[in-house]
Design goal:
It comes from Russula earlei. This protein is of the alpha+beta class. It is built from five helices and eight strands, in the order E-H-E-E-E-E-E-E-H-E-H-H-H. The strands form two sheets. Strands 5-2-1-8 form a four-stranded antiparallel β-sheet. Mean pLDDT is about 85; it is low at about 190-205.
Length: about 260
């Protein structure tokens, strides 16, 4: 058997990605010229490398992911023509116009050498600026105000992990190391991590993911894990006490 078709056991290798969308308000002229005049926004949903190029105003995308991703399928709302959009080469993105927010299914298919099953992600399309309170129930600002606030960004950081990869695929991955995330931010932080009510939360800009944010995210996950463990222990103790009480009542009933 060729060594290229042998799995490298006990090894995991990952690639950082972001997925999400950016959205801008259509100008009155664009709305007037659009076949569907009820459309209010132009948006782009994408899967990109996590690191951003220094000289680019695009969120993420410093690396070409085509060396390990064969296809990304974006499943849009059924009201769109051809709602399942297949993108077979970078940039893995779809640009459309619309007026409403909805959930987009993102299916990532890897190159044949990976011999890995596709993965499915979900993203809620975000069109309106994040409110000061962070509540989605607040009415979106008027179009003229939204234009001043700048583009809306909604991005999620994730890591695709390949465990026990085939040697050939491992060779491909190691030949394309990801661009490291900057240690500290050089641009406004993404809206969903900005402090509510702050200038960064209310102004537009190009967000950027950083190594510091990655550490913060890991800490949040660890804090959440500890909370879950503590709750489980509390319920375990409560359950044990109730079982003792049930056993006591059974003995009392048996004595009578």
């Amino acid at each position: 058997m060729s060594t290229e078709r042998v799995r490298v056991r006990g090894l995991s290798i990952y690639r950082p990605i972001i997925y999400g969308n950016t959205a801008v308000v259509l100008t009155p002229e664009e709305r007037e010229a659009h076949p569907s005049r009820e459309h209010t926004h132009r948006w782009t949903v994408a899967v990109r490398s996590a690191a951003s190029a220094e000289d680019s105003d695009i969120v993420g995308g410093a690396d070409d992911l085509g060396y390990f991703i064969r296809r990304v399928t974006f499943k849009l709302h059924e009201t769109y023509p051809n709602p399942s959009r297949n993108v077979d080469k970078p940039p893995f993105e779809v640009t459309e116009t619309g007026w409403g927010e909805f959930e987009i299914q993102i299916r990532i298919t890897f190159i044949p050498e990976a011999a890995e099953k596709p993965i499915i992600l979900y993203h809620h399309l975000k069109l309106h600026p994040w409110t000061a309170s962070g509540a989605d129930t607040e009415a979106p600002p008027p179009a003229e105000v939204a234009v001043q606030l700048g583009p809306v960004h909604s991005w999620q950081y994730d890591e695709i992990v390949f465990t026990d990869p085939f040697q050939q695929f491992l060779n491909t991955l190691t030949a394309h190391p990801p661009t490291p995330l900057p240690k500290a931010r050089r641009r406004p932080v993404p809206f969903h991590t900005a402090n509510p009510g702050s200038l960064e939360a209310s102004k537009g800009g190009v967000p950027e993911f950083t190594a510091a944010m990655e550490k913060d995210e890991i800490k949040r996950f660890e804090d959440a894990r500890k909370t879950v463990v503590a709750e489980q222990e509390k319920f375990r103790i409560s359950l044990a006490e109730k079982e003792k009480e049930i056993e006591r009542l059974r003995k009392e009933l048996g004595d009578t």
